[in-house]
Amino acid sequence: MYYNLLKLMTPLFISSYIPIQYNCFSIYRFSVIICFLALNKIFSAILFSVFFYKVTKSVFVLYFYSEYSGFARVKQRL
């Protein structure tokens, strides 16, 4: 990931030596990098929350199922 970031930012460092009127490209490239990193963070957060929700849901379902089945067995004995 850091290698790709370095590859993306190399034109930015090169274009910082070019005079200001040609420097719009680097500003655009920098904003694209920031936007990409933000989207990457948001996407990973969404993925993590979905994964966490699925795991907790399955754990709760297993827990309630085991509780319910135990309750049903006790009820059958009575």
In short:
With 78 residues, the protein is mostly helical. It has helices spanning 2-15, 24-77.
**Mean pLDDT reading:** 67
Q: Radius of gyration over alpha carbons?
A: 26 Å
Number of helices: 2
* Overall geometric form: rod-shaped
Q: Please state the structural category.
A: mainly alpha
Q: Quick one: biggest sheet?
A: none
- How far apart the termini lie comes to 62 Å
* Elements, N to C (H/E): HH
Q: Helicity range of the residues?
A: over 70%
User: Count the strands?
Assistant: 0
Low-confidence stretches: none
Give the key terms.
single chain; 78 residues; mainly alpha; rod-shaped
Word description of this protein:
The chain is mainly α. Helices cover 87% and strands 0% of the residues. The chain is built from two helices and no strands.
Topology, element by element:
Elements: H1 2-15, H2 24-77
Helix pairs in contact: 1-2
